[in-house]
Amino acid sequence: MSNKIAILGSINVDTTYHVERFPQPGETISAISKSSAPGGKGANQAVAAARSGAKTYFVGKVGDDNEGKFMLEALKEEHVDTDCIVIDKVHGTGTAMVTLDVNGQNHIMVYGGANQALLKEDLENTDKVLDSADFLISQFETPQDVTAAAFKEAKNHGVITFLNPAPAHEIDPEVLKYTDIIAPNETESAILTGIKLNGEDSMLKTAEYFADKGVDNLLITLGSRGVFYSTPNGHGLVPAFKVKAVDTTAAGDTFVGAMASQLHTNLDNIEEALVYGQRASSLTVQKMGAMPSIPFGDQVEEALNEN
Ligand code: ATP
Ligand code: RIB
What we know:
The protein is α/β, with parallel strands linked by helices. The protein has helices at about 40-50, 65-75, 125-130, 145-155, 175, 185-195, 200-210, 250-260, 270-285, 295-305; strands at about 5-10, 10-20, 35-40, 55-65, 80-90, 95-100, 105-110, 135-140, 160-165, 180, 215-220, 225-230, 235-240. The longest helix has 15 residues, at about 270-285. It binds adenosine-5'-triphosphate and alpha-D-ribofuranose (RIB).
């Protein structure tokens, strides 16, 4: 089974500089090589969901430039519905500069461009999408007031809202008011709540923090340690798969998109969906790049059958 997923989010062209080590402040170093590929948290999550068989719709913005055309084509090739992607005449398409060292660690700098120029008015044609979708997923690379408006409308359509608060920013309470599931990584979680994560008690405290704000379902991604989940029906830690990571860019995005493609809207298969999402991201971290490293559903199934 696969869901219908709507993504409200960012679209970036990523340029990756492969380096021996990160430069010190003020230092110039030579890159070993350079590559460019489609990316952006929203676009990566959409592709992860689509490659796992979900019917996927995108709501977002690109510039009226070559990067925008490239990204629209890339999403269409992945069978992502791009009807609700608006073209901005003023701002350029979002870009990201990724520096990746030989240990697979990265630094990312993002230019928001058209993503940050997304407006509530740009949502006017999204009714068709919300009528069809099971889940609406958003991140923090597009303005929060637009996410709040879309989540509010999603609730009117009976759609489950899923927030991946990345990169971490203070959350607009209007967004939380309409969020059903929140999925930060451990750094984002600590920044958002002020609760340092050092074991199950701290994660349960984090779940309480969000529940007090009206969000009952929490997933904290813990890198190679797995995912902690807490819902009104229980909590637990689902371990990650043991693999050798070469580039973790888009691990979180793959997890979110692939997991949501499988999750029942009543969350009764949450552990199974967490295993599926993590198997997908365990394949992503073994390959270079963001979007190019995201696996297809049959590759995830094959890898699951190996265990
Ligand atoms: P990123 O910003 O690098 O895309 P993230 O910080 O949002 O990722 P993580 O918690 O690092 O998210 O990773 C998401 C999931 O991907 C993890 O829960 C885990 O299942 C998988 N993953 C990440 N890193 C590794 C790794 N080194 N080995 C195996 N699985 C990994
Ligand atoms: O999560 C990875 C993504 O973050 C990259 O593709 C980059 O575009 C940034 O948005």
